[in-house]
């Protein structure tokens, strides 16, 4: 297999990855950015430079803001390879990547340092009926809108909790698509808990103002908004036909052929787990995150995590996070000294703090309810790939399974194409509930490469290093 050395390898071309690459270039490093998508921008700025929408402004000013970052990146002399999967990363910073599509193949990269900017993923939301056609995640629906200008042809019911739920409802309204209803599953106690963090929220007034504007626009559009939903299920035989929910003990129903689910996002830790980085449980965000220092460096020297992959902070916080990782990488590789790093870091840390001060408020306000993270209905599917139910997991716990890795032996749960991305959190919470112990004691799946499917043909086709480096930042030809 052909191999090539680079100063800094950046995995992911979202706001954290792009900012890291630009900062690295500024300090004399030669970064290389690999990304699975066709265009730079990540999920938050997906297709911002080539939007298929007649008016990209319907997605809002935060989305359009990403164009300046993408333009700065594509205008820089930075190595960039889109449609490229980094499927194995070793502690020695040797990385196996595979390019997708025509002319694809595999190459090994030897990096001086690595910045992982793999972002976040939607938290699993297993409810009865969530596997029916006509049910999908809000994030997936938003991707269709950004990447392909596809919108629902029927009024959707949005259900769950989290800022994205309201942002996407607002974006649909702007795009001229009616929203049938919003069913908010956040508990009544969440608002009281959030008020304890009001001081930090007031230091980020722009975020509060944005939230008020979204709610006002949704209200003005006449969207039914139901709060404190305590149970939720999708009804239908072969596809979604209705959503049934309960509020204050009263069960109600809305007929709909499209249900969009969302209950927040969590760090995508598949890559860091496959490397062997240490992880810790974040009780505020109810998720695992890689253990990092103030620069984003993991327990594996020279490997950094930036952006939401290190803990949910949002797109604006991701940029200074990526830049901080890059300046520390520049020090570790001998391109700048600590004094220059620290001088630059003062500005970056102030910027980061201005965007993270509101996070405890948002984490408390949109904390997913226990009943929606560990479904009570034994018939609810939790592992979509292998069709394993919540009842199956509880029975495995009764048989002596103490962690998610043991459930694989009993049921193949977590061994499907998604590699546990959409069931790992749920399985861990169900096992913890059954055993009466905290989730950190239960643990998580052991992730092994390849972290996503790779074909034998791709493995057998070596890409020459000179060809690999021939593409610079800018759009692929």
UniProtKB/TrEMBL annotation:
The keyword Oxidoreductase applies. CDD domains: GlpA-like_Fer2_BFD-like. Residues 7-332 form the FAD/NAD(P)-binding domain. Keywords: Oxidoreductase. One of its GO terms (molecular function) is oxidoreductase activity. Residues 382-460 form the SoxA A3 domain. It holds the Pfam family SO_alpha_A3. The keyword Amino-acid biosynthesis does not apply. Gene3D superfamilies: BFD-like [2Fe-2S]-binding domain, FAD/NAD(P)-binding domain. This is FAD/NAD(P)-binding oxidoreductase.
């Amino acid at each position: 297999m052909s191999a090539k050395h680079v100063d800094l390898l950046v995995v992911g071309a979202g706001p954290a990855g792009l900012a890291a690459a630009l900062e690295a270039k500024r300090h004399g490093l030669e970064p290389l950015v690999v990304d699975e998508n066709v265009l730079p921008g990540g999920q938050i700025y997906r297709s911002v430079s080539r939007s298929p929408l007649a008016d990209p402004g319907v997605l809002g000013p935060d989305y359009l803001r990403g164009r300046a970052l993408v333009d700065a990146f594509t205008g820089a002399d930075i190595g960039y390879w889109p449609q490229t999967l980094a499927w194995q990363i070793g502690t020695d910073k040797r990385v196996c990547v595979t390019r997708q599509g025509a002319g694809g193949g595999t190459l090994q990269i030897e990096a001086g340092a690595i910045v992982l900017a793999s972002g976040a993923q939607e938290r699993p939301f297993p409810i009865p009926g969530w596997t029916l056609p006509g049910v999908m995640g809000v994030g997936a629906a938003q991707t269709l809108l950004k990447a392909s200008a596809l919108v629902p042809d029927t009024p959707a019911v949005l259900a769950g909790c989290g800022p994205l739920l309201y942002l996407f409802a607002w974006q649909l309204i702007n795009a001229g698509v009616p929203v049938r209803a919003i069913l908010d599953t956040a508990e009544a106690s969440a608002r009281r808990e959030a008020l304890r963090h009001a001081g930090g929220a007031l230091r980020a007034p722009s975020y509060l103002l944005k939230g008020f504007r979204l709610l006002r626009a949704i209200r003005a559009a006449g969207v039914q908004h139901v709060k404190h939903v305590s149970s939720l299920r999708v009804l239908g035989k072969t596809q979604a036909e209705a959503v049934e929910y309960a509020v204050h003990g009263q069960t109600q129903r809305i007929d709909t052929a499209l249900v969009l689910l969302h209950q927040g996002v969590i760090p995508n830790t598949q890559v860091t787990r496959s490397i062997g980085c240490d992880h810790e449980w974040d009780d505020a965000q109810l998720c695992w995150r890689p253990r990092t220092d103030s620069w984003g460096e993991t327990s594996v020297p020279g490997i950094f995590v930036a952006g939401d992959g290190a803990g949910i902070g949002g797109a604006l916080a991701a940029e200074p996070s990526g830049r901080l990782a890059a300046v520390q990488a520049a020090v570790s590789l001998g391109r700048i000294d600590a004094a220059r790093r620290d001088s630059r870091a003062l500005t970056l840390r102030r910027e980061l703090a201005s965007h993270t001060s509101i996070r405890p408020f948002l984490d408390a306000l949109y904390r997913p309810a226990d009943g929606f993270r560990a479904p009570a209905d034994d018939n609810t599917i939790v592992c979509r790939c292998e069709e394993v139910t919540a009842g199956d997991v509880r029975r495995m716990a009764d048989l002596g399974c103490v962690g998610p890795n043991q459930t694989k032996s009993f049921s193949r749960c977590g061994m499907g194409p998604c590699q546990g991305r959409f069931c790992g959190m749920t399985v861990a919470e169900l096992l913890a509930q059954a055993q009466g112990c905290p989730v950190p004691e239960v643990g998580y799946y052991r992730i092994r490469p390849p972290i996503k499917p790779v074909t034998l043909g791709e493995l057998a086709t070596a890409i020459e290093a000179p060809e690999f480096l021939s593409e610079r930042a800018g759009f692929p030809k």
